[in-house]
Design brief:
two-stranded antiparallel ribbon, about 15% strand, Rossmann fold, alpha/beta, seven-stranded mixed sheet, 2 domains
Amino acid sequence: MNKHNWMQAVLQENSHVSRWISNAFHLLYYHASNTWQKNTFLGYPIGQCPFDMQVYQELIFQTRPSFISQTGVAQGGSILYFASLLDLMGAEADIPVIGIDIRLSDKALNINHPRVKLIEGDSTEPSVVDRVKSILRGRKGMVSLDSDHHKEHVLAEMKIYKSCVAIGSYLVVEDTNLNGHPVKPSFGPGPYEAVEEFIQAEQNFLLDDVWKRNRISFHQHGWLKRIG
């Protein structure tokens, strides 16, 4: 047995070894100051794991959402990435990418793309939700949650925006790796715990393991597919 086949056999027979290696790399990559935090897209900071952006690309192409919405805009890289993907797919010009943030950065406000619609405010405030729904006009699509990562806020967002997700599309809860899953064990209940509570009570969504072939995802417990 050659070295490559031997290693494959070890990993297949010892899933805990595989998980340990994945978690070790996850911790190393996440906490390094010169990895994902330095990533950009067309000059805009995009604080994401590249594996996750690949998964997003595949899901957006497969599901062809009638809109994409993200809470938590930061410097705008993800919003511009989503808008650019829709362009590359030849999506209809009126399909919006909506970004919501408690305070929009100057960098994000500098984005000049006809699909991008930015809303400043708390994503759970009724007035903000009303503005989002006025843009959607009844459309169903994909929703990504990346704002305040504390459990109660994430859970509130999930309950508010779940109805906006199309059947077959995704509600993505980002950064479920917090609170020791496996990073930042002292964070406290966060996205992971919000998903656990949500999924126990909500039968129209299931956890999708679409990320697993990449071994790691910052949102590994947060890819939720709507099935009903």
